[in-house]
Amino acid sequence: MAAIGSLTKRKAEARVIMQKLQAANPDPRCELVYHSPFQLLVSVVLSAQTTDKMVNRVMAPLYESPFTPETIIALGADGLLNKIRSIGLAPTKAKNVYKLSQILVDRFGGEVPSNRADLESLPGVGRKTANVILGEIFRYPTLAVDTHVYRVTKRLGLHNESTPEKAELELLKVIDPKDLPAGHHHFILHGRYTCKALTPLCEACLLKD
Q: pLDDT tens across 65-85, in order?
């Protein structure tokens, strides 16, 4: 892990890091499959403690047919559970998705809200999930700190915090807003394929210097 420097130094380092990642991948994308804001919201809720690949395997076929809050309400929590049972923590997640679908219809006209307070009022939606939606759908300069983002940015010396929540606040001080939300995807992809938890590919890393 790189030594943590001053705020000024970390800002300069973050800019170089972002430039290198952007040059290597000018269009980083979310790897969750979705065709609407609601579908992304569902997939992010389902992805907690589960891989994106598993969520895509289960949900991508469902998203090819109409899949809206009304679809979930018609299915019911048990009907949804039968379709997502192979996803980790499926019973709790099915209940949350059913409840949030009802709330979206009752309070928001079936649309995914575009502000943090309303998003975090939905069952199963915490700060990280809200950040993903605000960044991916509404292009706000957010940074959802998942396990990959936390690990990569700590190894690079951009923060030295003990929790993802604290890390997010520190990272927002050093990463230029214009590099967000793309930076969120850059760090996730770098952590997923290069800066892995147990076997990082340091020799192949474009940030090794």
A: 999 999 999 999 999 999 999
Residue whose C-alpha is closest to residue 71's, from 32, 44, 42, 45? 42
Q: Is 106 a catalytic residue?
A: no
* Cα–Cα distance, 77 to 58 (Å, whole number): 16
Which residue is listed with tokens 């979705």? 34
Collect all residues with Cβ–Cβ distance below 8 Å to 184 and sequence separation of at least 6. Answer: 131, 132, 135, 142, 143, 144, 149
Which residues, other chains included, contact 65 with Cβ-Cβ below 8 Å and sequence gap of 6+?
Answer: none
C-alpha 167/C-alpha 15 separation (Å) is 17
- Whole-model pTM? 0.94
What is d(CA 68, CA 100) in angstroms, rounded to the nearest whole number? 11
Please identify which of the residues 78, 99, 118, 128 carries the catalytic annotation: 128
Q: Is 146 part of the annotated catalytic residue set?
A: yes
- Catalytic one among 146, 154, 176, 178? 146
